Amino acid sequence: MMGGRTARFVYLEERIKIPENVKVEIHNKKVKVSGPKGSLEKDFSYAKNIIISFENKEIVLKAFMGRSREKAVLYSVASHIRNMITGVTKGFRYYLKIIFTHFPMSVSVSGDKVIISRFLGEKKDRVAKIIGNTKVYVKDKDIIVEGIDIEAVAQTAANIENAVKRHHFDKRVVMDGIYIYKKEVIEE
Q1: Distance (Å) of CA 66 to CA 48, 52, 118
Q2: What does DSSP assign to residue 20?
Q3: Taking Cα atoms as reference points, which of 179, 136, 139 lies closest to residue 161?
Q4: Does residue 6 have a pLDDT over 70?
Q5: All structural domains of the chain with their residue ranges
């Protein structure tokens, strides 16, 4: 790899099988996937050199004469579409654990916000935003975040975890917080 050269490919193709109970619509790099749990739509117009088409109950992604960047974008788009299909057929679930040793904290859900009260004895509530159609449940010392869009579910879980980030505390001494401990595809 001298002189900044990178490897090129002539033709790259990735195929994604569509399950029987899933309907896919493709229009100008906008992919809409509908299934038993709902529908998701994403715009892949940023993937300039990628061709997205529909052939024989499969989504076909193609790229011609590209470099490693185009290859990465193609596989990234394929991964997004696979996650959309999994989301509308099964769904995604994240588990978070509420941990407190010094001050009892309470967590509740109100509309599109998760409200954390009495974190480290603070009088002001901390608030985390729920993204999209994600559902959040609080059961004892667990918070369950679930939905069909993996990006919205993951971002909601991250918002909750980040709402109680502690600054200027030694993690080994003060472990109070809310932490993601499990991620899964719902297998109901």
Answers
A1: 11, 16, 54
A2: T
A3: 179
A4: no
A5: 8-89, 92-185
| SS3 at position 12 | strand
Q: Does domain 8-89 have CATH number 3.40.50.2000?
A: no
100-143 per-position pLDDT tens digit: 987 899 999 999 999 999 998 889 999 999 999 999 999 999 99
What's domain 92-185's architecture?
Answer: Alpha-Beta Complex (3.90)
Annotate 52-118 with three-state secondary structure: EEEECCEEEEEEEEECHHHHHHHHHHHHHHHHHHHHHHCCEEEEEEEECCCCCCEEEEECCEEEEEC
Count of C-beta atoms within a 10 Å radius of residue 186? 15
Q: Quick check: 32 and 22 in contact, CB under 8 A?
A: no
Q: Residue 20 has which token pair?
A: 């029987």
Structure tokens given for 154: 């993951």
**Cα–Cα distance for residue pair 164/105, rounded to 1 Å:** 11
Q: Tell which wins on pLDDT, 69 or 92.
A: 92
Could you give the angle at the alpha carbon of 68 between the alpha carbons of 67 and 73, nearest 5°?
105
Q: How many Å apart are CA 161 and CA 107, to the nearest integer?
A: 12
Strands of 113-117's sheet in order across: 106-110, 113-117, 126-129
Give pTM, 2 decimals: 0.88
